[in-house]
Amino acid sequence: MSQGDLGPAEYQLYLLETMRPLPEALDAALRGVGCSQERMEQDAERIRSVIQMPAGSAGRTRDILRDVRTHQEQNGLVERYKFPLWPDCELEVEYHPAWDFFMRLWFVRAPGSESPTGQPTPWTWLKDEVLAQYEDVKELTLWLPYETYDVLNPKDGKRYFLRFGWHVLQEIEEM
């Protein structure tokens, strides 16, 4: 498979597919980019096949995303990328110094974007923003890119289940 026919649009669909958003969020996102679920799955598989080859996946990812890079620091070891589906966020990637693999990959708030206020809702809040609202935070699952937590809301005294994909809130449900 050639990397030449893969770009930021396909990588965005890969990120979306691997987030496993709730059906309503997935449908809205796919409508927003004019894409079917079948195409998303196909493009995600194409990206997966390129970036999961033995060694060098970080370099291949950098090549695919170079046109949407917004920020670079630490001699290129940390880069940020912008995608239309997440206008207030950027994908931050920390590369291993050997460039062969990722140390960390997640969404962060984009410069100039305001953190949301009020009740946390899927797709508008990031992990650190949400967890700061709760107490008695218990990690349930850490299987990147997914993370799940059991938290206590000090405002209503209820426990909630939280699920994140790439640090973006995907689900919040009263337990």
List the helices and strands and how they pair.
Layout: H1 8-19, H2 23-32, H3 37-51, H4 57-65, E1 69-73, E2 78-81, E3 89-95, E4 102-109, H5 127-131, E5 135-143, E6 146-152, E7 159-165, E8 168-174
Antiparallel strand pairs: 1-2, 2-3, 3-4, 5-6, 6-7, 7-8
Helix pairs in contact: 1-3
Structure description:
The strands form 2 sheets. This protein has a 4-stranded antiparallel β-sheet with strand order 1-2-3-4, covered by helices on one side. Helix content is 29%, strand content 31%. It is globular. With 175 residues, it is of the alpha+beta class. A hairpin with a 7-residue loop joins strand 2 and strand 3. It starts with 7 loop residues before the first helix and ends with a strand.
Profile the largest sheet.
4 strands, antiparallel
Sum up the overall morphology in one term: globular
Q: What's the number of helices?
A: 5
* Helix percent band: 25-40%
Q: By helix and strand content, what is the structural category?
A: alpha+beta
Distance between the termini: 45 Å
| Strand line-up in the sheet with most strands | 1-2-3-4
The overall pLDDT average reads 89
In summary, what is this structure?
This protein is α+β, with helices and mostly antiparallel strands. It has helices at 8-19, 23-32, 37-51, 57-65, 127-131; strands at residues 69-73, 78-81, 89-95, 102-109, 135-143, 146-152, 159-165, 168-174. The protein is globular and about 50 Å long.
